[in-house]
Every structure is written in C-alpha cells, then in structure tokens.
Design a protein that fits this description.
Glutamine Phosphoribosylpyrophosphate, subunit 1, domain 1; PRTase-like (chains A, B, C, D); globular; seven-stranded antiparallel β-sheet; GATase_2_dom (chains A, B, C, D); Rossmann fold; six-stranded antiparallel β-sheet; homotetramer; alpha+beta; amidophosphoribosyltransferase activity (chains A, B, C, D); 19 helices
C-alpha cells in the first residue's frame, strides 16, 4: 500500500521523466510537494531498550513513509541521534547503530518516499540545544502558517537549519519567555496552525500532542512500566505494548518518571480526524474505534456494492490498495473475488526503463494481468481512490488487452476535488482528475464501461455513522467537500516570499 | 511469494542466530544449501536493446532469486559482463550500466536469496575464453554429478574459478575434442546429470537447453524478429514478446542469424517437469499448458476443500503464498475469504532484532493478526506447503492469541518427506517436518485443531490429470514420493572429498 | 609537512590507543582539541569557473587542513554548497560536483586532520538564511569569547546548527539591527575576540576580514578582472593569480561588481601575525614580506647553527618539517646535509597496527633509518619544533640503533611552554614537553647527547628583525613567551557550562 | 618516488585526457601497459601474526605498486584471501580484515598504479585448487612467453580466470605430471621465460624463486623462528626481521616446518639484476650489496658532477626522485643544494582539472617553484631519468618563469632508448624521448641551456664496478643498451592473437 495519496510513482513507465525533472538540483522550495509529508511517529519512556523498540515501532509504521527515518534517544548524559535516508530495516537493525542510541527514552520518525533528492538536514527528529537543555521533536502533519511564522522569526534573527515546517516549533520554544519546558511547548503550539501529531523528547520527559481537532492520529500504549506513543496501534502490537487510549484532539500528554499527566491548552472542540487514515493511510490491522481498518475498508466495499452494483462475472482488486474493499464488494454482491492483477513486489523506486524504445513497448514493471481470470469476462475493478487517474487508465487498458469483455471501475471513496494542506502530498487541483472532469468525462478518460465512486455519506456509513453531519462533520474531509477545518494562513499571504532557503546542498 | 522452499528465513526472530552461523566465513562447501539454488534465466538474440530487455526479463523473474544477478552481452567485438549481489532493479536500471552491456545478444541470470555471504565469482552467467572464442552460460537447476566430474577435471589439471556446479559445463566444453561450439556443447551436456535449463551465449549464437526429462522450465518467445528464451512466460510478457512454445525436454535450440534450429541429442523420454513450479515457484500470472499458475493453485485449494473440508467461519490465507489456494478453498466451501493476517512488505532479509530481550517479547516483524477477522472465529489457515513448520507454528499461535476459537490448517500440497537435489534448496531430512513426524505428530507440533494436506493425486487432479500415473509419473515429485527421476551420483560416491574449495574469499 | 602543531599522530605506533579513545562517541565538547582548528580559506569574485578555481586554491592550501573541505557558490539564483570529509582532490575533482557549484562567486575552506570522528554539520563554509538573504562564512582562527557569546545567544532563543565557534558570527549578523549586510558584518566582528581570517559570501559580494592584530593570514590576488582572497600566496600561484597585497590587520575588504572597497572598523594597532606561520604552517613556497617561507626557515637553521653549533659528521633533517632548517644549518656549519631518515609517504591517518604483539616489536610505519648515512657517525638531527617530544624520542632511539655514535638535537624554534587559543591545536600545558621540564630534563627525556633550541630573538632575526621588541612584539608568540595578545574571555569564565551541545550525531 | 618508469601521470594537467581514454571500457588487452607491472612481494612462514606482518611488509613496499594489494594466508584448514584495489593502509589496517586472514603462513602482493580501471580478478596473489591442494602465487616481474603458453594451454582446454601473465604458472603446475608440489613448481618455472621473483604458498610450505639471472629482487629474512621473503630489505626492517641473504638467481627456496631448503633447477649463470632497482625502484633505505640505495644514488650524482659539471649558483632536485643524486652532485661540485621546487604531497591520482579553460591557465597541481631560490640564479636541475620528457619540459619552463637565469638539466642515468619487457611499464619506443631524438634534439625539446646524462659506465661505477663488462654485463640494462638478456618469445610470434580475453567486466 502506498502512503502517498497519488496513483503515480516513479516506477510507472511514463512518469520516469517527470521524476528525473524533480530530482534535479536537490533542493527544496515552497511549492514542491516534498515539503508537506505524510509521516509516522513513535516515542517510548522508561525502557532499557528504548531505541531498539523505537526501531521496531518505526518498522511497523514504515507504510507511512519510506524516504527517511531517524531516532533520538537520551541516555542521562546526552542526546544521541541517527538520521538516515531509506528504510528503518536497512539502517536500524544493526547492533552498532542501536548501541549508539543509548538511553531509556527515545523518539523516532519515518518520512514518506518521493522521487526527489531530499537532504539529511530535513530528516526528523529535529533537535535543538535551548537554554533549558536539549529538545527533540518528531512531527506527523503539516502546519498551515509555518511559512508566515518562519518569515517573522528570520526577521528577528532566527537561523533555520532545515526547510522543514516543523522547525518553527523549535524556534518558538527557544524564544518563549516561560521557564519550564512544558510551558514553552504549550506556548509554541498555541502559535501554530494546521495538523500535527507530535512526539517530543527532553532530558526528563516524553511529550505527545495532537492539534485542536486531532487531524493526525496518535495513540498511547503501555509496555510493562514504560509508556509508548505511536501513530497507529500496529506499532504497539509489534513491541507487545497494550493499547491504552488515543491522545485526544487538543491534548498534550507529558510522561515523566511520575507517570502520565494530561494538559488541555486549547478550548474544547469536537474531534475531526482525517478521513484518509481510514481510506488510505493506516495499516489494515491497525485499530481505530475498536475496529480494524481492514474491516472499515471492507465495509466501504459493501457500501459501494449497494450504491453502485454491476452485473459482472468477477471482482478484481487493484493490488494492494483495493483488496479489502474488493472483498467487501464481492461478499455483498455475491460475485467471485479473484486476483486478476498480479503485482511485482520487487519494484523499488529507482527502476527506470533506460531506453525510450523500450518504454514505448508499454512495458509493465509493476502490474501484470492474470489472463485466465480476465479473458472473456465482465469485471469490476476496485480501487480505494483515484488521484491523477494515469495508473487506473493503464490498468483498465491492460484488462481489455487481456481479453476482458467489460471493465467497470468502482472506487471506494468519493472523487478528490480539493488538495490537502495537512500532511498529505496531493498534486494541485489542475492535476486532480476529479477537479477537472465530471463523472462521464472521467469514465471516458479512464476508458471503462462504467465508473462509480462511493458517496460522501457512504464513507461515513462505512465507519459507523448514519451519514455526514453537515453542521459538525465528524471527519476532516475537505479533499471531497472543499471544507477546510482550519485557516490556511500561508495560502492567503500573497506577499510572502516563496523561497524557503537560498541554499542547495546535497547530503 | 518466497521462492525458497522453506518456511523459515533470516527475518523471522528465532532464526537469526542460525543465519549468523551460516554467514560465518563466507565460503561455500558441499553440503551447504547455497550450492543448490533455484534460479531464473533469460536470453535474447537479435535486438538492439538486448541488455535492457534482459534486465526487464530478469526483473519479471526476480521471484526466482534475489541474491544476485548478472548479464553478459556480445557486441560484435567482445563480451561485456556485469554481475552484482542484490536485486536487478538496484543495479541494472541505470543507463550507464546498460550502456556498458552493448550488443544484440545477451543472457542473464537471477539467483535466490540466502542468509549466507556469497561471493561474486559464483554469480552467473559464468564465462570462459575457450579456443573457439568466448562462451557464457546461465543455469537454472542442479547437476547431480557435478562434484564427481569436478574431481576428475581437477585431477587432470583443470582450474576452477568458482564453486558453482555450473562451471563443470565450461570445462567439459573447453576440453571437448569437437570443432564446432554446438557439438562441444552437446558433448558437455551428455556428460552431466540432473536438472538444467540452460541459456548460453557465443559470439554468434544463443543456445537454450533442457535436461532429458525437462525438470526445470524454459520457454521460447518472439519479439519482432528477435528470439527470446526465459524461465517463465511472465518474462516474455514484460518485454512484450509473444509466447511461441516451451523448449522440449532433452531439446537443444540454437538461435543464429539464420533463425532457430532444434537438436535432440538424447533418446526420447516422457517429460517430467518439477511439480513445485506449479505449487510454489512460478509467478501466478505465468502460463503453463494454457492455464495461469494462479488458476492451477486455486484449483489445488478447490481439491483441498473437497478432500478435507472444515466447519468454520472464515478462510484465512497465510500471505502471500497461500492466497490463491485459499480463494479456491473459499469458493468451493462457500466460507468467506478474509485477510486475517497482514504481511509487512518492508521486511528485507537483514532485519535482525538486536537484543535477546526484545526477541523474547515474541516480536513479529513480518506477520500480524487482523483482530476483527480472527476474534471469536473458527478459522481455516491455508498455506501452499510446510517445510520445517516453524513459521506455521508461530502463525497458528498468533491466531489463538488474537482470539481465534478454532484453528484448522490446510496445506495445498502433500507432506514433503524427501529432500530435493535438482535446484530447490530444501533442508535435509532431519529438518523436514513431514520426514520426522506423522500427521498427528505434526498437528500437535503446530498446535492446531486439525491439519490436512492435499493428496498426491489431488495435485495431479488440480493440474488436469486424473491422478498420478505410477508407471510413468507426469511430474518430478520425489519430495512427496521419494522417487528420484535421475541417478544421484554425487550422493552415492562415499569416497568423494566434500570440500569444493580450500579458498575463503569475501567479495 | 604536518599542520597540526604536535609531534604525534595516529599513525605513530603507541598513540593508536589514544586515538581510539578520542574517536569514541563522535561528538564534540569544549575542551576537546578538535574545536580549535588550523584551517585554510579561499574566495573568488567574478570568474565563470569560481568553484573550480576555489577547489584548486583549496588543494594548494591542503597542508592547512586535511580533515574536511567545503565550497559554497552563488549563481544568481541560489547558493550551492558541498561539504565533505576528506581531501579536496578526492571530492572536488569530479566534474559533476563542480557543475553543481555554479556561479561567479565562491568561497571554500579546508579543516585540519584529527583522529576524532567529526561531523558534517561542523564543516565550513557555514551558511545561514538571514533576512537580508543568504550568507556563508569560512573562518581560519579561533574566537576566544565564542562560548561566552554562545551562552548569551542561546539564552535569548538562538538555535545553533553546529558546535563550531564560527557559528556565533552568523547569529550576531542575523540579530544585528543594521540594514546593510556589511554593517551587520562589522557589527558582528566587533563583538568577537581572538584570531580570525574570514572570507564571506552573499548574493552580491565577497568579504574578507582579519582580526585587529592580524594573527591569521589573508592575502589579496587578481586573476584578470576577478578578485581572489586566500590564506597564502601558494593558492594564488596555483590558479595563476597575481599577488596584490595582504589584507591588513583589522581591515575588512568588500568586493562587489564595483571593485574592492576597504573598511577599517577598529582602532589602528600594530600587526602581530602568528610566528608559527613562519615556523610551521605556511607552505615553503608561500611568500610573506617578499621572501619565501622556505628561505626564512633556512635562515632559522643558519641562526641555530650560529647559536648552537655541534662538532659532527653529518646534518640529518627529520623529514619533512626539518628539511629547510637542516639545509641552512648545513650551509652555515659546512657539515654535509644527508637524508638519514626516510619517510614513508603512504602513511595515511588510518594505519593502526592491529595487534599489540606487533606494536611491541617497535614497528616504524612512518620513519626508517638510512643506515649508510648513520652508521658510525656523529649526527645533528634538525627539526622545526618539539611539542610532546614522543616522536623525537623515538627517532633519536632509531638513530642510535642504526649505529649513530652521537646524536645532537637542534630545534629551529624556541621551547613551547604555553598553549595556543587562536586556532592551533596544542595539547594542554601538562603535555607540552617544555612546559614541564628544563633543558637538561628534556635532553635526558629525548635521550640525546645534546639538545638546543633557537632563541626567541633568533626567530626574529631569521625573519629580518634585530630581535624581539619587548614593548611591542612584532609577532604573536605567546607559545614561547606566555604573552597572549588578546583577552581570553572563555578561559576566565569559571561559571560557563562547558558542554556546547548535548547532541551526539554521526555523519 | 613514483615507481612507474615514466615522467607522466594522470595528475599532470595535459595527460588527463589520455588517462580518460585509457580508463574507457575497463578491460585489458595485450599491448596495454597494464599487463606488465612493477610490483612487490612478501611472504612469511611460522608466525602467529603472519597476515598482519605481511600487511606491514607490503606497506613498506607500497612504493612498488599502489594500484591494488592482496594477501592469502593458510590457517591449517583453509586458505583465506583478501584482494583490494588501493593502498595497503586503506584496507589491511582494520582488525576485522586481518582477523579473517588467520594462520601462520601468508603471502602478499602490491601492484603498481595506472590510470586505467583494472579488475579484481587480476589482483594477486592468484589462487588455484589443484589436485595436491590449494596453491597461491604472487609475482614481481613479467614473463616473456606468457601469451604463447596461454594459447597452447587454452587450446588444450584450460580456462583462465584472469588476464595476468602470472596465471600461466598455476596452469602449468596444475597440469604437471609430477606428484609433489615442489616438483610441479619446478616443472612449471622451467617452462616460463622472462623476469620473476615469486613467493608461493601451499598448506605446508612457503616457496620463493628468482628467474635464472635474477632480474627482479628477492631477499630472505628471519624474525625469531619465522622466515620472511620480501622484494626489498625495507620490508624486513618494518617487521623487525633480520636480513639473512638474497635469494640467488635461479634459486628456489622451500620453507617448511623443517626449515629452509634450497633448490637450483637451472644451469648456473652469472646474475644480472635489473639496474633500475638502483636508479629508480628500490626505496632509498633498502640495502643492496651492503650499501643503501640512497648511497648508490648519491654516488650517481657524484659521477654525474664529474662527467658533466656546470658553472651554476644552485643545485635543485626534481622532487622526490632527484633528491639523492642532487645531494651527491652538490657535494661533489661544491654548489649549494636547495629545494627550488616544492611538491604537493596531496596529489592523488584522481585530481583532474574539470574545465579546459582552467587547464589552459597552466595550472600546476603537483610542482611549484620556490621563487626565492630560483630568481636570478643559474641552476642545475637534477632528476634520475627522462622517459617521455613532458614533465621535465614543464618544470624547466616553470624555472624560467620564476626568474632562473640559466637552467642546466642533469640526469643521473643514461638515455632510455629501448622498452622493457620484464615488469617495468615503459611506453613504446615512439614515446621514449631518447629513442626519437639525439642529445641536442632533446635539449631543444626540453628547452634548457644544457643537458647531460650519466654514462652507462658511470652507472656501473656508482654501484662499485670499474665499468660495464661488455662480455658479461653485471646488470640487466637493455633500456640503455638494447641488449635483452632473455628471449622475447611473445614479441617474435607474429601469428599470436593479441586479444587475451574477449570479456570486459568491471569490478
């Protein structure tokens, strides 16, 4: 399952050149997708193997980000940091690395995979020596006023070490007039806007926090006497920790030797978690609200079968993201579920066909057709979403070439019409298929016999609501509805210089 | 899908120490599993992008071997070789590598993944300068008299450059008294015994060959005016080549500028392809005998449901290998198919938990339970085979811990009671679960409520026969039956020194 | 010629374990030698190959620092940075690196070689985005109030990206209330104390500056219409630039499209350049005051022969640092000059004998005796300085073992009795041989027949003065005299926390 | 001191493009300089730290070859091999490498530095499993009938693993009909022609051998009860071994647990060691015939001053190779010796100026002028040899540009008029300056006021003879005289195919 909300990546054939363009000079500017990442966070307090357990937790969260990973621990004397490009298992499985990360407290971060050439100074956790001591932070989400705050801070003499939106938190903390770290931390997060699930580390505490409406997820677990914070429950499972509860929206939890203490620095508001965690991001075995995400996704397939049935011979998922909904669709419709498309799991992000001649052959590096299932059949293709539509179009074509008599596409979420600003890397509106075409236009573009999306209410029903409450929507769902739940300060500030750093540096 | 016929690998927790042992000194001795590999081969004659297409073909065959890969091309002047440890996409996707592999003829090889520390001199294709010119060979299979021949050759002055069984072919060829290369090649393969699908390259021809009973697969394709040879049809599909036919058992095909010429240097015998290609090795979308392998595996699940039904609530595959049979089992039994186990695709072969303390927690790096599906249910677990049984046992335990009421294990192939000597890396008999226990013993060891394997005849029926013909079995199936189809010369020679090389060299 | 003012390094046998200790955790704390480095700087304005010429200039300055190197250029759009551990020629000779460093302005830095494990964030040039735009700085020297300033800056919210003393300049600049960059720069350097030769880069200018008494060197050159700044004239020579003049002590030169403009922000004082540039650091072909450094060093040997003659058969330099003085000594005394000690130029800093057993054999990795020259002779050994004395002692022993009848040691500089705080990595007083023993004690420790140092006045005479002017010494010579020319603020502040960063990070 | 008999290398400016050409495809063909290398060998029998001492010995012999190095040890069970591109200190100083090379017997090899892209399969020691067990060999020299023998061996079925001339020894040994290894070894070396100093290793012995006239050097040492073999005495010194004697020309020494046993398989002939060891290759502190090489080279300078005096102000060596002769010239003539040219020791072989524009500036990466010494002076430049003359020409020009009034070049060896075929990498005759011009032509080409070479008899006198004995010359001196001391079989065989391997492989 890819975590990037996009149906195109560098391994698909005709996007190779686009990637090459993006990889160019190796620097980051505002406007690049890469500044706004989907990520995973983990933290643990009070365990002798804090760093090793953090590595395991990050491994379980690897689907949330494959570009880079990092861990910071505190050992009673100093903070220890390791930040690397690539997968957790490639860097943090060796004993010598883990041994450098001594201590009973640790936090970690995984970052998502782009085609670009990112730099190590943007890899989290970020760290600062401030007057109260060392402070490290790992962030999942995106701040919508980070550029505005950055300009103000630089004007008054701050020097940034990265182009990450997260760094603003360190500067606000460092400049706070408060004495205690927790007070400084609250001071800082009161000034930021947008989506955040944060885990932070000092020499004596682990801090967790979610933004006022809880857009990005964060859960609390216990492992013996130790406390764990993680983006998803699957990271508790891998270390054998017991699920305690979610961190509430707008809550700050401070874990010290005296246990967990909860702060509520914001006015109480209803929670509005991001609906894409259910549709797309969370791992199928993670539990939200007592149900596994797999179960919810299957239910989306059930809803979809009810809303938009099709008279076909076989239900085929687009692997791997469409599998749970396809199973639900199959069970509800009684039409057999079959693996009509086989995915090559050895496709990394670097396989680029070297010769135009070859790419013109229509080479399929990632997906291939299972001819016995497809030939002569009427099929429903099930996927969880459509972003640009380029991959869906290619797969539909592959189905017809493999002998399908009819191809009906069913998407287990509504059309994506608006970009995200809260940590999901969506293309801008002009590249979002559903932002530029109506349903019939999309059907024609994709070249299928019929096309249907799950309704917005259908999503809410699959999760267990009766439907969307328009006065107080239960989810952050602006990608489908255009209703953004927070101010978008950076988007409105026309006068803001867009260049975050004048420095290009590799490595 | 793992290609190694084993249910244990270095990523599972309690095998880490075993791997560490194997990795030791970095050399290969007879008796190590590593000398007898499952592999994939590819060759192409007559295309300006020969090496690039070979890289794509190897990528499609990557499931047959992830340890190492290599390509040799001939450009009219010289042979060009690149051999690397690791995946095809990691090494052969860069233009500068492909550009070094100039020419219109190329062959390639992928080798399977072990925990050991292999050496580049064993990576194929192997090459020799012989008096008729350069000669390269890539081999899938295993020769059962390679050690015996090696001893004879060394006694008469041959110097080996590798510890690969394949090298014997080069020496036999080089010492042949025949004048023409094809005659020398036939001279050589008449002296070898065992299983082989070979693709070879000279400065003017591409040669393909299968052993007299066709144990390992090899197919012929056409891409415009070019000829392609490959282990499976999925490698034809990726380059857009058209399937022509299989190379027959005992056939040698010689492809030159004048087209394809067929030789039959052996007495005609019935074919006996290895049954494990159907059960385990081939990619689901590859076609054998007009049907996709997925279809055949699903049918094994259907047979299994008929032979050994179970009164349960849900059918759960052990991912990814058990999925097709589980779908068949579900369709035949009418019990719902559900993904009750989630697999982490980011597990590489190097993730070893660093601390005993952590491994004792029972960390699950690779598989996790989908609790909503399992809790309170009676389940059938479907897998395609059981080798040592250690992973199956752990998964069964995970199911009970996740709340399963009953766990019934169904295996879509018969018990493996005998080791292989034809290119499949099986543990020796003492480690094969079914070689040491009866059915009830295995059930108890695995800790499940019931256990059933598909019958030997069931396998034959799933492929389309009425059953196994005991006078002339249609498959090489000795792992289930103990009937080896060829002499095992090296196994019988008690006097043979077991040390293939006295040299330990890294890199 | 080693640039570190020490006669021990990691390649000499019995210091290996000391190095191992230093290499430990990979972080830097105040008190480690590594914070106070000898370095080289280079800058160029107005040439299309600015970065390539900077790489050449740094190569010529490589003797001033081998640990790390970096270049920052500005290309009209953005700043481009490459910073690496290791030698210039290993990193900046490849076209693809130089091509990334586009632009007509560039500055660069080389840093000296330690045994420790430094981190890339400390490699210069350092860069900051400040409100007036990007600003990069490269620094040779050491600030004596950097820790004090750092504490104040962190207390008011500054976040450091390195543990380098140089970074304080960026923060002072960023926080300055002045509008123009040059004013901010002057504002910043007025607050710092100690030794500095700085080259800085903005989007429109190259800035050079020397501290008020000009402890560290900086020269101006012209290459066609381009301006060059460099630590020594040898860096002008390599790029074919013409020497213009030295930057004066306390001068700030600002080079823009309009040419060079000079600022004098400090009260006028007499210059006091560091005497060690003459004795030790500068390359022999560099020119100071119209004479090559080789010539001056030879003259030190002449003075030494006059002050402390010896009745011997042969003059032997300790290579390579003792060669010029030995030639002078030989010419003045009429005793033949011979290479009695051969140096192995392939000794890198990593060759550590692996076994105690071997090290006990007294292995000589670096120096060996030329027996024909030594055997039966009375010799004078000439070196330029003695720091700890450990290497000198070993070489003297080697001479006796090779058959020398008498060994007389002559040092072409005075005894080093006080540590440096201006950019030279001296051990603390307890490790300085001359700080702990008198002349006879040292002679006994070194195990030689006689020992003599050049007098302080002798040094001044070799350079061309009549002697040292005690009321206004012409050089910074505190290592010999104890007279430090500036306040040592950080040394006096007993209350200052010594830990610069709590963060340990590798890479 | 460079060991390649050439005055050009890749670091000099205008040869960069030539190197780029050579680096091209990464394969070796007959006719390339790279097949015929100058090298160093080392072996030790009977010491628990055999590999570590071999690494030290190779380090002392590093001047004989910087391209690659390797060590093979035998530990009682198996042979252990490590072969690497690059310097000994970069690869064999780490404990983990040495620990893999267990055992009490070891041999090693260093290979010289070219600009090309060599392959690991050519790095020595070469190893073969033959019927008597493992056998490893390291070779300094060059065989003049290796190509002829290779053709014969391949015709009868031998398969080569390298393109090294040395491998022929392994095949002859492997095919010998003798029973004992020593007999096979003698059998083999009786068939080879040319120059060789060999050290070989089996599971129970160390073998050393020199060709019938002893062209390449080999000495015997003792370290306690252990025996050592090495190319030069400096490798005995570094491990603390005592010099015993040279291996005689035509002698085979076999060292086992029973001590050293000497064989003389060839008719007795007078020795004719290569004169270039004295002039060029051996390290200055190595001892030949009781005198250090430094001493002999100084004497060449003395002879040269007597033969070709010059009325000048200063004697300037071309560093480092010209230093000893310049000291001798200075002492004999009474004219002062001065370092008028400074060499940059940080020039590796990879520094290539990236832009034609820059190279046109006449950048000097390696040598710079010491202006104080040169300006207004009449100088003698002393070097040990002239090959192509390109570097000498540049340095002469540099002297004039630095103000020299007169430049007189004095070469401390005779003109090189003939190429070598015994292990010295000379260019072919058309590139040898002295093969294409007379003395006046050369003077003009080099652009100097006068030019003189040492006479052939002068060389002999410097070593201690009265002159060359024309009936039985004491040295192999064909480069000066054209008298080759052995048949040159491969040179005469016009029918021999020149392509040693059709395989191009990188790495």
């Amino acid at each position: 399952m890819t975590q990037r909300l996009d149906d195109t990546d560098c391994t698909s054939d005709d996007d190779a050149s686009e990637c090459a363009k993006l990889q160019g000079p190796g620097y980051l500017r505002y406007g690049d997708d890469r500044l706004r990442e989907e990520c995973g966070v983990f933290g643990i307090f009070g365990h002798p193997d804090a760093a090793a357990l953090t590595a395991l937790g990050l491994h379980a969260l690897q689907h949330r980000g494959q570009e880079a990973c990092g861990i910071v621990s505190y050992d009673g004397q100093q903070f220890n940091s390791e930040r690397r490009m690539g997968l957790v298992g490639d860097h943090f499985s060796r004993a010598n690395v883990i041994e450098r990360l001594k201590g009973h407290i640790a936090i970690g971060h995984v970052r998502y995979s782009t085609c670009g050439d990112p730099v190590i100074r943007n890899v989290q956790p970020l760290f600062a020596d401030i007057s109260t001591g060392g402070f490290a932070v790992a962030h999942n989400g995106n701040l919508t006023n980070a550029v505005t705050l950055r300009q103000e801070l630089i004007s008054s003499g701050a020097i940034y070490q990265s182009t990450s939106d997260t760094e603003v938190i360190l500067h606000l903390l460092s400049r706070s007039k408060k004495n205690r770290v927790v007070e400084r931390f609250v001071d800082a997060i009161r000034q930021i806007e947008g989506a955040y699930a944060l885990v932070s580390l000092t020499n004596e505490m682990l801090i967790g926090a979610r933004d006022p409406i809880g857009i990005r997820p964060l859960v609390i677990g216990r492992l013996g006497s130790a406390y764990v914070l993680a983006s998803e429950t699957c990271a508790l499972d891998i270390v054998g920790a017991e699920f305690v509860r979610e961190v509430d929206n707008g809550e700050v939890v401070v874990i010290t030797e005296n246990g967990l203490e909860s702060h509520r620095p914001f006015p109480i508001r209803p929670a509005r978690p991001c609906v894409f965690e259910y549709i797309y991001f969370a791992r199928p075995d993670s539990v939200i609200g007592g149900r596994t995400v797999y179960d919810i996704r299957k239910q989306m397939g059930v809803q979809l079968a009810q809303e938009s049935p099709a008279d076909v011979d076989v239900i085929v998922p687009i692997p791997d993201s469409g599998v749970p909904a396809a199973i639900g669709f199959s069970q509800e419709s009684g039409v057999p579920f079959e693996l009509g498309i086989i995915r090559n799991h050895y496709v990394g992000r670097t396989f680029i066909a070297p010769e135009q001649r070859i790419r013109d052959l229509g080479v399929k590096l990632k997906h291939s057709a299972n001819a016995s299932i497809i030939r002569g059949k009427r099929i429903v293709l099930v996927d969880d979403s459509v972003v640009r539509g380029t991959t869906s179009k290619k797969i539909a074509k592959l189905m017809y070439e493999s002998g399908a008599r009819e191809v009906h596409m069913r998407i287990s979420s509504p059309p994506i019409t608006h970009p995200d600003y809260y940590g999901i890397d969506t293309p801008d509106s002009t590249s979002l298929l559903a932002a530029t075409m109506d349903l019939e236009g999309m059907r024609e573009f994709l070249g299928v016999d019929s096309l249907a999306f799950l309704s917005v209410d259908g999503i809410y029903r699959a999760v267990g609501f009766e439907g969307r409450d328009p006065r107080s929507p239960q989810f952050t769902d602006h990608c489908f509805t255009g209703e953004y739940p927070t101010p978008l300060t950076d988007q409105s500030g026309v006068a803001i210089p867009r260049q975050l750093s004048w420095l290009a540096e590799v490595g």
